[in-house]
Amino acid sequence: MNPIQETTVPKYPPLEDRPIKNTICLFDVDGTLTPARLAVSPEMLSALQALRQKVAIGFVGGSDLKKQQEQLGAVTGENVTSMFDFCFSENGLTAYKLGAALPSNSFIKWLGEEQYKELVRFMLHYIADLDIPVKRGTFVEFRNGMVNVSPIGRNATTQERLDYQKYDLEHKIRETFVEKLREKFGHLGLTFAIGGQISFDIFPNGWDKTYCLQHLENEAKRPGGIEYKTIHFFGDKTMEGGNDAEIFSDPRTVGHTVTGPEDTMKQLKELFGI
Ligand code: M1P
């Protein structure tokens, strides 16, 4: 029988009564709890249920909650905010504790309309003046936690993406663009990150996965709140430049590199005997 069905809606001790009370395990999602962009396995859910009997558990992912619900809620259809004690979507800009929302944040809240308008005005002028072989649509994508900017536009087809990526590498289109932006807007405390094929992301400095740690620190400040003295973090992209690198090497966490979900379960077994 599916081990998940046997234990539908398992009961967990309240956070203050967990056997290892001051410890929390935080997990990256893609490549750590699930195969990249795919659904969680029933085995992983069983392991997390067993772990949650002992310590607090949470996930921290760069995607939004909807995406994490699709991946982590795929087996049981359960609401992901009740499957973990802490849910940190978009690195913690959207956060839940025991199903209840914690204070949220957004790029526009942080930057303000006036500065954003100045930034977007400059970028759209810059893109308009760019002489590149192909331009499509959606040059600036406004997201909750960041702005994504693409000289070719996000409507590019797969082939157009591949062609652009090659062209960009040769002609340093994004690199030059980002240099200009750093010169002009560097004082705003923004990170300009070239990650994918056709675009780059702009977000406030420090809005990587370490952002979520402030929610745990706030827990300790609440009357009767728990101080998480040991914060285990498990992630697969912990190498320099990877999106788990900052939280992995943060002095507030104990970092664990995993090679995939199977390895995560293996390490949990070794560490917690589950
Ligand atoms: O995960 C890396 C990047 O993936 C996409 O980039 P692109 O469309 O350029 O391939 C975007 O989602 C981007 O935000 C992200 O950083």
Topology of helices and strands:
Blueprint: H1 3-6, E1 23-27, H2 42-52, E2 56-60, H3 65-72, H4 80-83, E3 86-89, E4 94-97, E5 100-101, H5 107-111, H6 113-129, E6 140-142, E7 147-149, H7 158-171, H8 173-185, E8 190-193, E9 200-204, H9 213-221, E10 230-235, H10 245-249, E11 254-257, H11 261-272
Parallel strand pairs: 1-2, 1-10, 2-3, 10-11
Antiparallel strand pairs: 3-4, 4-5, 6-7, 7-9, 8-9
The structure holds 1-O-phosphono-alpha-D-mannopyranose.
1-O-phosphono-alpha-D-mannopyranose (M1P) binds at residues 148, 195-199, 201.
Family: Belongs to the eukaryotic PMM family.
Binding site for alpha-D-mannose 1-phosphate: 37, 143, 154, 161, 199, 201
Enzyme class: isomerase
Task: Give a written overview of the molecule.
- The chain is α/β, with parallel strands linked by helices.
- The protein folds into two domains: 15-93 and 207-272, 3-Layer(aba) Sandwich (Rossmann fold), CATH 3.40.50; 107-204, Hypothetical Protein, Haloacid Dehalogenase-like Hydrolase, Chain: A, domain 2 (2-Layer Sandwich).
- The chain has eleven helices and eleven strands.
- It has helices spanning 3-6, 42-52, 65-72, 80-83, 107-111, 113-129, 158-171, 173-185, 213-221, 245-249, 261-272; strands spanning 23-27, 56-60, 86-89, 94-97, 100-101, 140-142, 147-149, 190-193, 200-204, 230-235, 254-257.
- Strands 5-4-3-2-1-10-11 form a seven-stranded mixed beta sheet. The protein has a four-stranded antiparallel beta sheet with strand order 6-7-9-8.
- The chain is elongated and about 60 Å long.
- Residues 1-7 have low confidence and may be disordered.
- The structure holds 1-O-phosphono-alpha-D-mannopyranose.
- 1-O-phosphono-alpha-D-mannopyranose binds at residues 148, 195-199, 201.
- Homodimer.
- InterPro entries: HAD-like_sf, HAD-SF_hydro_IIB, HAD_sf, PMM, PMM_cap.
- Mg(2+) binds at residues 28, 30, 236, 248, 250, 253.
- Involved in the synthesis of the GDP-mannose and dolichol-phosphate-mannose required for a number of critical mannosyl transfer reactions.
